[in-house]
Write a structure and sequence with these properties.
mainly alpha, 9 helices, 69% helix, Four Helix Bundle (Hemerythrin (Met), subunit A), 162 residues
């Protein structure tokens, strides 16, 4: 999931650059919110999940030291505010679009460096059980106990009739 989020962040950033070059500053501002995906990658890397955009901002402060992440949190919050203004309030500008685009680039670079600098990524955050089983090709085994007698098992449906 970490790699998927980083890939999504890079893709959104590339599209935001195209929008900026086409003088589409509203969509530049909205799409440059690729910071969201890079922030999710940081959080997933530590084994956490978020429930909202604001929750993601708050949750990022938990697993990382203040010295490590404070500048990223500030950039994230500024970009979130600009995106909300553009998306919901139709308030945007060339300067704001340029700022959020630059912020997104810086955030993605710093997040990528931070993720690569850690020696042991939290694998549980990156993959669920099924994808782990597919990757390792380990069969899923279940234990089924056989009844010693041949009586049929009672089901809820047959029990409710009596």
């Amino acid at each position: 999931m970490v790699a998927k989020e980083l890939k999504g962040s890079r893709s959104d950033l590339d599209i935001a650059r195209e929008s900026y070059n086409a003088d589409n500053y509203k969509w530049t501002t909205v799409q440059a919110y690729s910071i969201f995906h890079a922030a999710r990658a940081l959080l997933y890397h530590k084994g956490f999940r978020e429930k909202s955009h604001r929750g993601l901002l708050k949750a990022l402060a938990e697993p990382y030291s203040k010295d490590t992440i404070s500048d990223l949190l500030e950039v994230f919050e500024e970009s979130m505010t600009l995106r909300e203004a553009a998306d919901y309030g139709l308030s945007y500008s060339e300067e704001g679009a340029k700022e959020v685009l630059e912020n997104a680039q810086v955030f993605l670079e710093k997040a990528s460096r931070l993720l690569h600098s850690e020696k042991h990524p939290h694998r549980a955050a990156e993959e669920d059980l099924l994808s782990y089983m597919e990757k390792t090709k380990k069969p899923v085994r279940t234990k089924v106990k056989k009844r010693s007698d041949s009586r049929p098992r009672a089901t809820r449906k047959t029990m409710d009739r009596h």
